[in-house]
Design brief:
258 residues; four-stranded antiparallel β-sheet; 31% helix; globular
């Protein structure tokens, strides 16, 4: 019998909030047929990634090293964003026209990231932004299976396979590791699933609003001392600003984030 998802109210985490809900840690990819373009084109996606690396040395962009467990010299986790909760990275998309054309076929896609986890590197356990997305990771180049290379979500573990999808609830505590001698490549695509009661735009604007609140809290002590009710008002205002800005930003390439 197929899993029946409960209808979920959108929850976006502020400050130290954590998601505690009924969603499974991992999801069955067959329940999300909109992801078929990724499976149909995974080899061409990998080819475009490797072609870029050959011409430009490596995938780079946002190096999320604050999340990396640096047990070995040279450990690294590098992410190149094509879309970040509908915030379009036009300058990066120019280099990956085929990948973008595939992701753009997925109507509920909210994020697309090329992610490289370097040898002997581990991503520290951390919580995601929202229950409003399912995170999909398409294996492009996977040096090994569990236990040497894998992903932990809540109390469960899974490995990647080349040409296969690994789907999980990003809101839960999750981590990743690669204790091999090779680099692990995945294409990350977030989707806003039908069991979430809000639209893709509403989810993305709310998450970007929360990320902006987090940025302000880290920069300004006054914001960090703000009571939670006032913080929620600030979040609502910022989310509205993002909702108004995103359609404009996506239409004009000169507004690409650095």
């Amino acid at each position: 019998m197929a899993y029946t998802y409960p209808k979920e109210a959108l929850k976006v985490m502020l400050r130290d909030e954590r998601y505690e809900g009924p969603l499974p840690a991992f999801h069955d990819p067959s329940l999300f047929p909109e992801l078929k373009p990724l499976l149909d084109n995974w080899e061409k996606i990998r080819e475009e990634v490797f072609h870029f690396e050959k011409a430009n040395q490596e995938i780079s962009g946002i190096s999320s090293n604050e999340y990396v467990s640096a047990q070995y010299e040279g450990t690294r986790w590098s992410n190149m964003y094509l879309d970040n909760f509908m915030w379009r990275h036009h300058k990066n998309r120019v280099h990956f026209p085929f990948i973008c054309s595939v992701v753009d076929q997925i109507p509920n896609a909210s994020l697309a990231v090329l992610s490289v986890l370097y040898p002997h590197s581990a991503v520290k356990p951390h919580y995601g932004d929202t229950n409003g997305i399912v995170r999909c990771q398409l294996g492009l180049s996977v040096p090994d299976t569990l236990p040497a290379c894998g992903l932990g979500v809540a109390d469960e573990k899974a490995g990647w396979q080349e040409g296969k999808l690994t789907l999980f609830t990003e809101a839960y505590l999750h981590s990743a590791w690669n204790w091999t001698e090779g680099k692990r490549y995945v294409l990350i695509v977030d989707i806003v699933p039908s069991f979430i009661s809000k639209s893709r735009m509403a989810v993305c604007a709310s998450v970007l609003g929360a990320q902006t609140v987090n940025y302000l809290e880290n920069r300004f002590a006054m914001i960090k001392r703000t009571p939670m009710p006032a913080l929620r008002i600030l979040h609502s205002m910022l989310s509205l600003a993002w909702r108004l800005y995103l359609p404009v930003q996506r239409s004009f390439k000169f507004l690409s984030p650095e």
